[in-house]
Amino acid sequence: MTDQGHSSVPASSESEQTPAKHAGRTGLTFIALGVSLVAIVLASVALVERSGTQPTTNAVTASMVQAEPGVYKSIVPSGYPYYFVILNDVSGTRFNGSMNFRYSDGQASVVFAFTGVGVNENGTVEPTAIPQAGSASENASSLPKRMAVTFQSHSVSFGQCMEYLHFTANETECSFRQGSTA
Q1: Whole-number Å distance between alpha carbons of 162 and 86
Q2: pLDDT at residue 18, as a whole number
Q3: How do residues 3-39 score in pLDDT, each as one tens digit?
Q4: H helical segments located in 2-123
Q5: pLDDT tens digit sequence for 95-122
Q6: Strand ranges in the chain using DSSP code E only, listed in sequence order
Q7: Phi, psi torsion values for 64, nearest 5 degrees
Q8: Would you give the DSSP letter of residue 3?
């Protein structure tokens, strides 16, 4: 002790602070951080409103399949037998229908029914029913489990169809144009 009755060590040294004083400073630090974060968020919102654009994200938005329900006929010379596709339902990214065959006598049969999924012009179909009627019918083992399809303006193409549609003469017969009748 000094002659004035005071300690030579200051009472307010950092090592002698009470836990209550330290907790008060920590609480103030968190409040300051919270206020800073709110200011950053508000500044970002103001910037977006001023620029008129939205911030970009990495989210992928699925687009609808670019096809319409209806009949799609293979491109073959008139009078020849041909395959045709019927799209029964197109809803968002899902669709269903059937691959069919028109014989030279005018009779038609279903080669296989299918369901599919797609985005924009690309899709995949899976056979769901494979009737065994008519010479155009296919064995389940000869059909791929999945087939690539491409949709374009009023047409649909089945990729590599010559491998599973045995009456196709060339790759152009794998493309089908939308028409009013089969």
Answers
A1: 19
A2: 52
A3: 454 444 444 444 445 555 545 554 444 444 444 433 4
A4: 19-51
A5: 999 999 999 999 999 999 999 999 889 9
A6: 70-74, 82-91, 94-102, 108-119, 122-129, 147-152, 155-158, 175-179
A7: -70, 155
A8: T
CA torsion through residues 112, 118, 121, 124, sign: negative
Residue 41 one-letter amino acid: V
Whether the model clears a pTM of 0.70, i.e. scores above it, the answer is no
CB–CB of 142/167 below 8 Å? Answer: no
pLDDT attached to residue 116: 95
Cα–Cα distance measured from residue 30 to residue 16, given in angstroms and rounded to the nearest whole number: 23
Query: Cα–Cα distances in Å, from 75 out to 66, 156, 171?
Result: 20, 11, 10
d(CA 97, CA 83): 13
Write down the domain spans for the chain: 15-51, 70-179
* Average pLDDT value over all residues in the chain: 74
